[in-house]
Amino acid sequence: MDSRDVPAPTGRRDVAVLVPAAGLGLRLGGGTPKALRELAGEPLLVHACRRVAQAPSVAMIVVAAPPAEVDAVRALVPGATVVPGGATRQESVAAALSAVPATIDIVLVHDAARALTPPDLVEAVAAAVRSGLPAVVPALPVVDTVKRVDTADRVLETVDRTPLRIIQTPQGFPRQTLLAAHAQATDDHTDDAGLVERLGHQVHTVPGSDLALKITRPLDLLIATALLTAHPEVR
């Protein structure tokens, strides 16, 4: 893989962003770790780290890479700290979190698969945590009709979607709160806000972004490619 120039973060520098990127992403296909699948000629991870690095508050980016790809990932994102990831997402987040120095108070956890997330969203989450909130997640309203079904796929009811939200990343926390959540985790979780919620903390939301779509399926990759083509400024 060729090296890509991802700038080192600059600005306020009180935020660390953890990017667990060791997953295989089987739904995306291709036999390559999902974070290393290419979008418009560059790995999703490079796109994601580039946008995170443009957020003025970010002091460091820590990537938990597939253990066999650590050196390759270091070449791809030279502005980031790269550590070997674990067998699960939670293990990868914990590995990345252990690399964050005690001098950094705010930690955001971000999916490499949300490769087009704008820097403004990173800043909004960081600012909300900085204001004293214990957990912050970006959220979008649910726009589709939602129905609850039984085991035979029969509709039981139409669910009121008004209070429902689709949650995105980055998710933000005070460093000590996230450390405590992972220390007390008893099973694998794919949502860090859920771990913090288990500690009894209130999770707050900020408005999400349509650009922060999660690239999970081949169709998502096509949508993201179209967004880059139609809106070159997204790069």
How is this structure best described in words?
- The structure is a single chain.
- This protein is α/β, with parallel strands linked by helices.
- Helix content is 29%, strand content 22%.
- It is built from seven helices and twelve strands.
- It has helices at 44-53, 70-76, 89-97, 119-130, 175-183, 192-198, 218-230, and strands at residues 15-20, 38-39, 42-43, 58-65, 81-84, 106-109, 136-141, 146-149, 155-159, 165-167, 171-174, 204-207.
- The strands form four sheets. It has a five-stranded mixed sheet, sandwiched between helices.
- α5 packs across α6.
- The radius of gyration is 18 Å and the shape is globular.
- The model has no long low-confidence stretch (mean pLDDT 90).
Low-confidence stretches: none
Multimeric status of the protein: single chain
Strand content of the residues, in percent?
15-25%
| N-to-C CA distance | 20 Å
Would you list the SSEs in sequence order as H and E?
A: EEEHEHEHEHEEEEEHHEH
Number of strands: 12
- Radius of gyration from the CA trace? 18 Å
Largest sheet: 5 strands, mixed
Secondary-structure-derived class: alpha/beta
Percentage of residues assigned to helices: 25-40%
Number of helices: 7
Q: Provide the spatial order of strands within the biggest beta sheet.
A: 5-4-1-6-11
Mean pLDDT: 90
Globally, the shape reads globular
